[in-house]
Structure formats: structure tokens, C-alpha cells
Write a structure and sequence with these properties.
Radius of gyration: 15 Å
Distance between the termini: 23 Å
Helix content: 10-25%
Shape: elongated
Number of helices: 2
Bound molecules: zinc ion
Largest sheet: 4 strands, mixed
Strand content: 25-35%
Strand order of the largest sheet: 1-4-3-2
Structural class: alpha+beta
Order of helices and strands: EHEEEH
């Protein structure tokens, strides 16, 4: 399951900070009645494509200690399951970018 979170930094800052970003503590599981803090379960790396660069960024994984459900904490400028950031789609919409290959 994906949790969208506002980190308060842009893509470049997030990529530079990497695992040093201020990751949130999330409470409560959406899959079971557990209301406590979800445990940190590591990171995975994913790519992000902007109009001018490509970044590899860490995504925090959380895990419910009761049911084992895992969560990805994604920055709000990422589109789940896509490597493109939201700005790319704005650029397409207003005509700055003409072609994107998905
Ligand atoms: Zn749970």
C-alpha cells in the first residue's frame, strides 16, 4: 500500500538527502486494527524522471508488526507506478514537452 507524504523538499533536495530525509512516523494500519507506530522495514530505490534529469531516490518501507502489511512512503511529487514526476504531465499539458515514451 502506498502512503503519499509531503516532505517539504523538491526532487533535487530529496535526492541529495537520500536516506537522510526527515521520514515521518506513521501510526495505524489500514489492514488491521493496530493503532501503534508502523515499523521501519528498510528502503527501496526507484527512478524519477523530470524534464531535465533522472534521479534514483530511496522510498521508505513501513511494516505493520501485527498483520505484516507493508507500506511505501512516497513523496507527493511522485506518481505511483510511474517514473515521471507530476511536473512532466504539467509540461505536456501546457505544451513545453511534446513527446514522452511510457
Ligand atoms: Zn496491520
Amino acid at each position: 500500500m502506498i502512503i503519499i507524504y509531503h516532505f517539504g523538499v523538491n526532487i533535487q533536495q530529496y535526492a541529495k538527502l537520500g536516506r537522510g530525509n526527515l521520514f515521518p512516523s506513521i501510526y495505524g494500519c489500514k489492514n488491521c486494527p493496530y493503532e501503534g507506530k508502523l515499523y521501519r522495514h528498510g528502503f527501496y530505490e526507484r527512478g524519477v524522471i523530470t524534464s531535465s534529469a533522472y534521479y534514483r531516490i530511496p522510498v521508505l518501507l513501513l511494516k505493520c508488526p501485527v498483520c505484516g502489511k507493508t507500506y511505501s512512503v512516497m513523496p507527493d511529487w511522485l506518481i505511483p507506478y510511474f517514473q515521471y514526476c507530476y511536473a512532466i504531465f504539467v509540461y505536456i499539458d501546457i505544451g513545453i514537452i511534446k513527446t514522452v515514451v511510457f
